[in-house]
Design brief:
The chain is α/β, with parallel strands linked by helices. Helices cover about 60% and strands about 10% of the residues. It contains 26 helices and ten strands. A ten-stranded mixed β-sheet has the order 1-2-10-9-8-7-6-3-4-5, with helices on both faces. The N terminus is likely disordered.
Length: about 575
């Protein structure tokens, strides 16, 4: 009866929102017409749009991250006119983990996909010498059972068992199965959990799904999230690399959605510290799933996929050979531009690294690509926030047996990329040319993604981590090592679906709207470049760069986790 009434209330809420929207459109018909104009036509008005954006940002900006902890030291940092609280990580804090996990005897890690192998092993090593057990929960028929055994989790010592038995036994349940599987199995997971236990998520997707169907989490458990800003293998690799330097890892956001026991914040912080996060910042599960699902469809994966395809064709049309075109498009991004942003910030790519002629190319490319990128990124954010993108992922999961996800690495672009990587000479200037036009397109897309999140009221720590640090410190190194197509074909199902869905949109919009504007010289260069240089996010990026991992990730270093290879 309770679930039926929740669904009815959820439907009633959606009907009410729809009715209000219809009434608004009827009363103020001009608003609807205004909203349908493209971002490109609005941007021609220049400073007036910037003023509107700034006003909206001020209305939606808020102070976040003012949590309290009696176990870990909280530090308040200034980010572009706002204050946020963070916790710095480090191996010297591992002796505080028993206090953070007070009352927890077993941590159940459910699943064995991208995040679970890394998180389970990091937790086990960080908790070594305590009486807290880390146990893997899988289906008995799971193909991952042998993989978990290969890194030391076994039935014999009680660290590997059936999924729902493990959930029922555990005080902290880390649900790290796929998003689609969470949507199918959540009611069984909830039923198996004991009262007072803590449900841990590394993605807010499940909350978005529950909200879309009028459901909620059980009210007798804690619900927290710790969300590393990188894929699982990078969480493990940097943890391994940081063993001799007091830690390195992937920054994480954390959120407390329900605090039944009054200890949820300490548990979340302990979880993040145990994973090796250099710093942790607070978010909400709602903000996390919106920014995360949105980001991986944008500059993190789908956007860069579509961008490279468009630039590769453009450079060939201008007379470059395929190898040189790939160097100027993809290799320039992963080998030169992303590392420069990681070490020096976004603005420095334009002000410090490019010569005068390259700066001119940057300005033209930026002025053309920013409005085109802003248009599609706003659409993506709206689709995620409305629940449409979550429903799309779940529906695809229902079709997966009949229509499995294909690969993209057989196309000409990515086959050329394989040859280019194999032929690298070791001379970075030759192998990874810093192209001003490519830099302008990449930075424009990154800034557009940032501005959509700013306008929606996300905190600066979340914006910078989701749009900048995760891109240049976690994903681009793998793209550089194995290729963009490898990342698309081997990331999480939700991310793969998003990239394959939205990358063609970025590709065609850049070609049909941005590049034609460059060729026709229909650009509002001065206004857009000044907006870029004055954007307050640069100050936040400078602060967050000081909190980046203490070492650069090594994709070639030995590791106990491997990137999956799809046959």
């Amino acid at each position: 009866r309770r679930r039926c009434s929740r669904r009815w209330l959820g439907a009633k809420g959606r009907i009410l929102r729809l009715s209000v929207g219809m009434l608004w459109a009827l009363v103020v018909p001009g608003v609807a017409a205004l909203s349908l104009r493209t971002s490109s036509s609005r941007l021609v008005q220049g400073r007036s749009l910037a003023s509107v954006r700034d006003a909206r940002r001020q209305q939606t900006r808020r102070t976040v991250g003012m949590f309290e902890s009696s176990v870990f030291e909280k530090e308040v940092i200034a980010l572009s006119g706002t204050e946020e609280a963070i916790v710095r990580g480090g191996r010297d804090l591992f002796d505080k983990l028993p206090a953070a996990f007070a009352g927890i005897k077993q941590i159940g890690v459910i699943g064995w996909g991208s995040q679970a192998p890394a998180q389970a092993q990091n937790l086990r090593e960080s908790l070594e010498g305590t009486d807290i057990k880390v146990k893997i929960g899988l289906r008995p028929s799971s193909a991952s059972w042998a993989s978990a055994e290969s890194v030391g989790f076994t039935e014999e010592d009680g660290t590997l068992g059936e999924m729902f038995d493990t959930i029922a036994e555990s005080d902290l349940v880390l649900l790290l199965i796929s998003d689609a599987a969470q949507a199918k199995l959540y009611d069984k997971v909830f039923a198996a959990m004991k009262p007072g236990a803590t449900l841990g998520l590394s993605h807010g997707f499940l909350l978005g799904h529950l909200e879309s169907i009028g459901e909620s989490f059980p009210d007798d458990i804690n619900v927290i999230a710790v969300c590393p800003k990188g894929m699982g293998p990078s969480v493990r690799r940097l943890y391994e690399q940081g063993k001799t330097i007091n830690g390195a890892g992937i920054n994480s956001s954390f959120g407390v959605h329900q605090d039944k026991t009054g200890t949820a914040t300490e548990i979340a912080l302990g979880w993040g510290i145990a994973l090796g996060s250099p710093f942790m910042f607070e978010t909400t599960l709602t903000d996390e799933y919106k920014s995360d699902i949105y980001g991986e469809r944008g500059i993190l994966l789908g956007g860069v996929h579509g961008m490279v395809e468009a630039l590769f064709r453009r450079y060939q049309a201008q007379g470059m050979g395929p190898e040189e075109a790939f160097k100027r498009s993809c290799e320039a991004i992963t080998g030169s531009i992303a590392p420069a942003i990681s070490k020096n910030g976004i603005k420095a790519v334009y002000t410090d690294l490019l010569d005068e002629s390259q700066q001119a190319e940057f300005r033209r490319a930026y002025a053309a690509a920013y409005p085109a990128s802003l248009e599609i990124l706003q659409e993506i954010y709206d689709e995620v926030a409305s629940g449409n993108e979550i429903r799309s992922v779940i529906m695809h999961g229902d079709r997966l047996d009949k229509f499995p996800i294909g690969k993209i690495d057989g196309t000409f672009t990515w086959q050329v990329g394989e040859k280019v990587r194999a032929d690298r000479s070791g001379d970075d200037a030759t192998d990874f040319p810093l192209d001003g036009f490519t830099a302008g397109v990449y930075v424009a897309m990154m800034m557009a993604q940032i501005d959509v999140l700013r306008a929606a009221g996300h905190s600066y720590s979340e914006i910078v981590n989701e749009s900048v640090i995760e891109a240049v410190d976690s994903l681009c190194p793998y793209m550089h090592y194995r290729g963009v197509s490898f990342m698309v074909d081997n990331c999480s199902r939700t991310a793969r679906l998003g990239s394959r869905k939205w990358a063609p949109r970025f590709d065609y919009l850049l070609e049909q709207q941005a590049f034609t504007a460059v060729d026709a010289d229909h650009l509002d260069i001065d206004t857009l470049i000044q907006d870029f240089l004055d954007n307050p996010v640069h100050d936040a990026v400078d602060v967050c760069r000081t909190l980046r991992p203490s070492v650069d990730i090594s994709c070639e270093a030995p590791s106990s986790v491997k990137e999956k290879i799809i046959a």
